[in-house]
Design a protein that fits this description.
By secondary structure, the chain is mostly beta strands. 0% of the residues lie in helices and 53% in strands. Strands 1, 2, 27, 28 and 29 form a 5-stranded antiparallel β-sheet that branches.
């Protein structure tokens, strides 16, 4: 069971975008950092256990060549083995900052040469695997950046051109050095999931059809893919083969956020029906199949949920953001 704690106040409300919350636990005891976006700005907040903000910072998008300020589509902390970078995606490009947002170390402009006049350019979907950062784009391409141990010498090392629809989300999980182990999954607006083995050259392992239903959020856990769809379903697949383990009619409306607490095997789902659910995942030792147990449901009354994340690896607390809600709601185990 979870109980509601004191919320964290914000200077502005989050935009109505799915996956519009990222959480980074800080080394200082009890401090947690949050990131979310609204229009052309990203808001970074660090908060104490009592919910009081310790610091707040706003980042603006790089202007690029076009008029006005481009809208930010996502903010996400990429935890690499040797450094942590904050990645912002927008309608014009990709910005990478030091974790506190103080210094921008890399800027990548989106290439509009192959876009039609009616297409909206944007980047969306961010994940880190090893020393690579993967970022999705409107065209279905996934850009793979090779990140050095320190400094700004980040290189676009590869472009994965398999998806035919816009990328919605990307997830990664450490492969622990095993051969042919799936450690990256990409999702798009058609619901297609592509499972990859990362490395100097990414290898496509399997494709999982979504039958035309968008997949806004995806996660990886112990070789399984958890995908949340626009029809409110959660489906869990075997990453290496694409075999379906479980299909859950989890929400009455489209899912806007999934998150995993890997140490506890907990899965969090938030949706446009204003509900947040907690699920317990486990693998049957006899059959090897994934089994799911429902643990908790929370109704965020009169709120269009747009982001939900665990605040620690054990899943003992989680946070929720909603459109037109000027605070981050927090819940913890009782």
């Amino acid at each position: 069971m979870y109980r509601r704690e004191r919320p964290v106040p914000m200077r502005s409300c989050p935009a109505a975008l799915y996956n519009n919350l990222c959480v980074l636990p800080l080394p200082a005891p009890g401090l947690t950092q949050f990131a979310l976006v609204h229009g052309p700005t990203a808001q970074l907040l660090s908060a104490a256990p009592d919910g009081l903000p310790v610091s707040q910072r706003q980042l603006h998008t790089k202007d690029g060549a076009g008029p006005g300020f481009p809208l930010i589509t996502q903010a996400y902390w990429c935890v690499l083995p040797f450094r942590v970078l904050l990645v912002l995606t927008s309608q014009r490009g990709i910005q990478m900052y030091e974790s506190d947002g103080s210094v921008m170390v890399y800027w990548h402009a989106l290439d509009s040469t192959d876009a039609s006049p009616v297409q909206a350019l944007f980047a969306r979907g961010i994940a880190a695997s090893g020393h690579y950062i993967c970022v999705g784009t409107w065209s279905g391409r996934v850009l793979v950046f090779d990140v050095p141990v320190k400094g700004p010498n980040i290189v676009l090392s590869e472009e994965l051109d398999v998806h035919q629809a816009s990328i919605t989300d990307i997830a990664a999980e450490p492969a622990q050095g095993q051969d042919c182990v799936a450690d990256v999954v990409t999702a798009d607006d058609s619901g297609l999931l592509c499972v990859w083995k990362s490395g100097p050259e990414f290898k496509l392992l399997t494709r999982i059809s979504g039958f035309g239903i968008p997949c806004p959020s995806v996660q990886l856990w112990q070789g399984s893919v958890a995908a949340g769809y626009g029809d409110g379903q959660i489906r869990i697949y075997e990453a290496s083969s694409g075999a379906l383990h479980v299909q859950i009619n989890a929400h009455a409306r489209g899912i806007c956020a999934l998150d995993l607490a890997p140490e506890a095997g907990k899965l969090l789902s938030g949706a446009e029906d204003s509900f947040v659910h907690i699920w317990k995942l486990s693998r049957n030792p006899d059959s090897g199949c994934i089994e799911v147990e429902h643990c908790h449901a929370e109704c965020v009354t009169d709120t269009q949920v747009c982001g939900a994340r665990f605040c620690d690896l054990r899943g003992s607390s989680f946070a929720v953001t909603g459109y037109d809600l000027a605070e981050i709601l927090r819940y913890s185990c009782v």
